[in-house]
Amino acid sequence: MWLPLPVPAFRFLAPHGHASVAAGARVVVPWQGGVRIGVVAELVDIGVAPALELREAVAFLDHEPWLLPVTRRMLAAQAARTATPVGLALATVVSVGLDVPLRHELRRLAAVDAEAFGAHGAALADGAWVDAEAFDNELLATWREHGLLDERVGPLPRSERLLCWRRAADGDLAGRSRAAQRAALAWLEEHGPAASAAELARSADVPIGAARALVKKGYADYAEVEPPPPGAPWVVADPSARSVPAPAASSGALTSLVHGGDRERRLARLCAEAGAAVRSRRQVLVLVPEVAAVDGVAAALAATVPTLTLRADQRSELRTAVWHEAASGTPLALVGTYPVLAAPLPGLAQVHVWDAASTSHKLLSGTRSVARRDAEVLAEAARAQLFWYDVLATAELRARRPAHIEAQPCPRPRLVTSDLRASTTWPLGSDLIRVLRQVADRGRQALVVVPRRAFAAGLACRRCGASVMCPHCDLSLRWHARRQRLRCHQCGHERPAPRDCAHCGGDELAPLPGAGTEWVVREVERIVGGMPVWQYDADHRPDLAPFLAGESGVLVGTSGVLRLPPPPVLSLLAFTLGDALYGHEDFRAEEQALRSLLQAAELGGERRPLLLVQTFRPEHPLWRTLAADDVQAAVAAFGEATSARRARYGYPPAEHWARVQYSHRDRTRAHAAAGSGAARFRTAGVPSAALVGPAATGVARVRDRYAVHLFLRSADEVALAGWIEQLDRRPGDGVAVRVDVDPYDVGIWLE
């Protein structure tokens, strides 16, 4: 069985006297003195002798599989590919049913004398069921080990404090003056409990005093009741969505890649395919990389097929309702981020991966898997069609060799590159200033994307150039001018600005040139006069309803603004520093920059906004590609060059990579541990060409820990997993070891 913990699979005896149960059902087992919910991976028969060494499970929670066989296969494959325990894969992906509050009760076995329980014998003397919370966990473990107990568990019934009907109206509610009270009482009797007197008053359309009078007079009262389970929250179609002609059904290929074009046309293809499957009484799963995109995709699907979403921010009762609706086999489309992959869809016919090339498919915790690859395993196990959708056919997507490729026409962006080398008006160049004034004069909308939040990348001494550094990280403290504070965006350390330079004693500290959102907002406000200007970043989440409804203004923010709903009258999309899109340590950076810019150009729908990019490198291939007369051919050539370069240097997808990170508070010990790890790999037979490092990370110290990396690479995933098994994950001496298979960056990576 599997437990949702970073542990391997365990064996338990089935509960005494259990009925027949299928693999995949939830089971409650004793764990560290208490009990824990796990999942039955498989049921096997064992001999008497091995059984004596196993503990007995407490109870099954299901008679049918909670996780389908295809889901269990996907989880096992994820664990193997990421070199992590299968329990961690379970905890990473399954978000429903494993953390249910339990009612755990016990009683002594009839053949056991009450005196065997010592001081607790009296409590267990009559053989009745007793709440397990009344006893110490260690004591329970001892009794369980000696076979003294009978135990049972089940989900703890939910209860809410609701206003309930108590008795019928009588003479005390007679008369015209009490008509509102009678109406409220009648509503309560007909419709059932209300959450409060205020809600009863709203529902019955009476003054709140009338509802409160019912409580005071004893006609209604508050009580703890078990509410009925909520129904599945079906998605409502977006009536304002732009209509795009529905394409014909595809060729029926097992794997398909749809790329290029614009978002609405790719969505139309998804809706057409999903519609055909649901009309055939089958089910469809849609994997979306980010929570912000779930609602938009689901609303588009809801216009065609019954649609549900499975979201981490849903209440647990709603997620459970969605889970049961899916398990019932109802023909539907289910949309969500990576936890949707575990949903029980017995009629699964299609798996769709939206924005398939997004780096957000890479999980940042747990197994650190790539959800897109898990979707591929699920589709194969279920013998379902697999579709990838993206604005760009990246090297990884092309390497999957889809049977069918649909390249939609790629419109040429209205691109203007503005050379910052000759600019004297940092951080906004003369071209951007001129266009922003036109936006203000015409009452239009603009998005200005800035590489970082805060005011500036830091404060530096005008005399010696030294920056004010974080005491815990090898990074400069970011300058937040509005709060007059310096803050580290890695560890959270804060301090006021110093009066003097710690290096030379100079008394003039000035912001570094790396402009953040605060700085850009200040400059934009000067340019556009009284036009509204909003700042949107990790520190500021204003109400953008007026802007998203079409009010003219300028929204300044980090890249998160690109994941907001498209503004209806957007005329300008500007990047204050386009070089920041690809100027970092990541072999995918240029490809992802091209992808981001192609997506950004889609924000205005059919009337594409002006795309203005400020850059110190106007000759960069990225800008030449976007400015080409035949953008589709230029993008294809860019992709071929990217694939050839990766193959030449052995980067994914040409080879599979794994990163092993060693970290310690002492730099020397971190490097020594990485050196020992490299020697261990060589001794285990890892070829020298397959081992890269040790190498210091881009930022040597974060949160008082120094990090050093080793990289393993191989064209064979099985060989790579075998090498990782040779790793000593607990070398001691305070060294922390983390493994990331298929890393999505080569910069510093510390949690």
Descriptive report:
By secondary structure, the chain is of the alpha/beta class. The protein folds into 5 domains: 26-155, no CATH class; 160-225; 255-408, Rossmann fold; 414-455 and 515-641, P-loop containing nucleotide triphosphate hydrolases (Rossmann fold), CATH 3.40.50.300; 656-741, Ribosomal protein S10 (Alpha-Beta Plaits). The protein is 29% helix and 22% strand. It has a 7-stranded parallel beta sheet with strand order 11-12-10-13-14-9-15, with helices on both faces. The protein has a 6-stranded parallel beta sheet with strand order 16-26-25-17-24-23, with helices on both faces. A 4-stranded antiparallel beta sheet has the order 28-29-27-30. Helix 2 packs across helix 3 (86-93).
Describe this structure in a few short sentences:
The protein is 29% helix and 22% strand. With 751 residues, it is an alpha/beta fold.
Which keywords apply here?
Rossmann fold; seven-stranded parallel sheet; disordered C terminus; globular
Show the helix and strand layout.
Elements: E1 26-31, E2 34-39, H1 48-51, E3 59-60, H2 69-82, H3 86-93, E4 102-108, H4 121-124, E5 130-131, H5 137-145, E6 149-155, E7 160-165, H6 179-191, H7 197-204, H8 208-217, E8 220-225, E9 255-260, H9 263-279, E10 283-287, H10 291-302, E11 307-310, H11 316-327, E12 333-336, E13 348-353, H12 371-382, E14 385-390, H13 395-399, E15 404-408, E16 414-419, H14 430-442, E17 445-449, E18 459-461, E19 478-480, E20 485-487, E21 494-496, E22 509-511, H15 517-528, E23 533-536, H16 545-548, E24 553-557, E25 570-575, H17 589-600, E26 610-615, H18 621-627, H19 631-649, E27 656-664, H20 667-683, E28 691-702, E29 705-714, H21 717-724, E30 736-741
Parallel strand pairs: 9-14, 9-15, 10-12, 10-13, 11-12, 13-14, 16-26, 17-24, 17-25, 23-24, 25-26
Antiparallel strand pairs: 1-2, 1-3, 4-5, 4-6, 7-8, 18-22, 19-20, 20-21, 27-29, 27-30, 28-29
Helix pairs in contact: 2-3, 2-12, 6-7, 6-8, 7-8, 18-19
